[in-house]
Amino acid sequence: MAEPVRVRCPACLREHVYTPAVLPCACGAPVAPPLLRGVEAEPVSDRTWAEDWVTLRCPMCGRRDRWPRPELGCDCGTLLRVPVQSDQAPAPSHIPLPRTAPAPRPAFQPVAIRTARDAVTAAALYLRWLGYRDVRRADQRPVSGIGLAAQGVVAQIEPSVRPATVRDVECLWLQSMTESAASVFFSLAGYADAARTRADELGVPLFVLDLAGVPQPVNSPADELIASGA
Question: pTM higher than 0.90 for the full model?
Fold first, then answer.
């Protein structure tokens, strides 16, 4: 359990005892944001994505992920942002891993994509090729596209002609955090630039499905997933 801290509201000077929420990492270990003692809380006026999230490192597996920044509502109506020690790390650019090493698994056998159903089939086959078993339709339907799930992973397939957006990537990542699973995104029309940047920050593997049915990695997390498998 995380240790509580005293938080004073700068608007009315009331003091509160605040205990941060503990959330599970993808590896299953509990992660709590390290609160900064002796630093005054800040009132929340305007919201931005960057300020609503904080980067934390899992103490067990070392994985960095984005977590909701702790907030506290004061009785006077002021919403307070509780100071946290963030573990920031620069997002790496996409540097493909060498492809000259022997393949650790048999060659992927694709299916040609002519319909949205074909795109889902290709993604499911690829997940099985990566080592995920019992691939099925996800219980939780994504905001757009089609969801797949297997033990330890949730995936989203966007079979339309529109590039996947930042919101698509963030919603998939949030679902994976809720289910303590990895996430993988497949898109037929690619990704908006902002979506690719956000996926790099969150560690979400992105693949583009070509019409031959072969998922092509478009960021470093995707390269790493191919190299390591499930």
Answer: no
